Amino acid sequence: MTSIVDDFPIVGVGASAGGLEALREMFGGFNGRCGMAFVVIQHLDPTHESLMAQLIERYTSMPIKQAEGGETLARDHIYVIPPGNGLAVNGGVLELTEFTDPRGMRRPIDDFFESLAADRKDRAACVILSGTGGDGSRGLRSIREGGGVVVAQAPDTAAYDGMPAAAIGTGCVDIVSRPGEIVQALRNYFSRSEPSRDVFNDPANTSGYLDNLCAVLREAVGHDFSQYKRSTLNRRIARRMQVLGLTEARDYLDRLSNDGAECNALFRDLLINVTRFFRDSELFGTLNQQVIDPMVAEVRDGEEIRVWVPGCSSGEEAYSIAMMFAAAADAHGKRPYVQIFATDIDEAMLDVARSANYPLSVLSDIPNNYQTEFVIGGGDTF
Q1: Claim to verify: residue 119 and residue 238 sit in the same structural domain
Q2: Which of 73, 147, 161, 269 could cross-link to 155 by cystine, CB 3.0-4.6 Å?
Q3: What is the pLDDT of residue 46?
Q4: Cα(36)–Cα(191) distance, rounded to whole angstroms?
Q5: Does 187 lie in the same domain as 40?
Q6: How many structural domains does the chain have?
Q7: pLDDT digits (tens, 9 = 90+) for 19-53
Q8: pTM
Q9: What positions carry a catalytic annotation?
Q10: In terms of domains, do 206 and 240 share one?
């Protein structure tokens, strides 16, 4: 495996319907060297050649090419996905991947973002541009969890706002911007990454500012993070400072004390809402075989079973458990009274869970037999 020594940022850019216009504006809005590599993942017709690279190149001074696999990513270069294949990055090298899902169920943006997060961690960024559906909304969570930055096109500037709106709805987007301002925003973010990473290494900062920050946050959102792991607090606060362009702890404390929106942003950053249906399939299988199925097999009709799912985030794992209980009840011909209590401290994520409405791009996380029994489709969501 080839590896890049130079740890420059890599930006994954996801787009679909209306994406060409947004891509032109995004790359046309910046001149000069930005120090980043860009990989464009556009939904393409696999039966036709793509002219995407040629259509973008007139709007940027950066070299641009359609990926063939095996390219070592370079600063100030743009790489475009080819039709009929997915892309992954491994050690800073692009790899072509084969689709296993049928058309309409593929999620090349999610897949690339997840590989990018694993490969680049806090030197990764993702951008969601115009498009229908929700491709990218799962993968961006991986970028966020790894310490990277997440950007979405402002929905009111998108020809099709489905993808940007779905991304923003996850609560994991750091920057919402017009396309023409995105490259500069990313350049600003990564150019100030070094000073803010270690801003709380000074013991005085750690003992004083962190305690004060936790007190302000507790007053604003009603949750106490003073016993949270200090290293995690350091990273997440430094990340918010990086987004805001602040380098001094006292300046961020002042901002937090006077900005309720920033309190909520830090609160969401500390929670890291990363979830999916049947998130760890092996563990869910074990749970079903060793707990749910035997429990349902022995229960009497009408007998109550209560399940608590703490930290449920946007609800995918709670609904996964519900599907397993319903399937076990049908298999054993039983009718227990099953109550599932799903709780979380993030009200925004609970709103998503209560709606039980998810982007079609995550449907393949649900086993086919459960899809048939428990899923109701509806356009770009189910």
Answers
A1: no
A2: 161
A3: 74
A4: 11
A5: yes
A6: 3
A7: 999 999 999 999 889 999 999 999 887 777 788 88
A8: 0.80
A9: 16, 43, 135
A10: yes
Q: How far apart are CA 109 and CA 119, in angstroms?
A: 15
Closest listed residue to residue 66, CA positions, set 54, 84, 48: 54
CATH number at residue 317: 3.40.50.150
Token code pair at residue 214: 């936790």
Please enumerate in sequence order all residues whose Cβ is within 8 A of that of 356, keeping only pairs 6 or more positions apart, or say none: 315, 319
Res. 368: pLDDT tops 60 = yes
Instruction: Single out the residue of 176, 165, 158 nearest to residue 243, CA to CA.
Output: 176
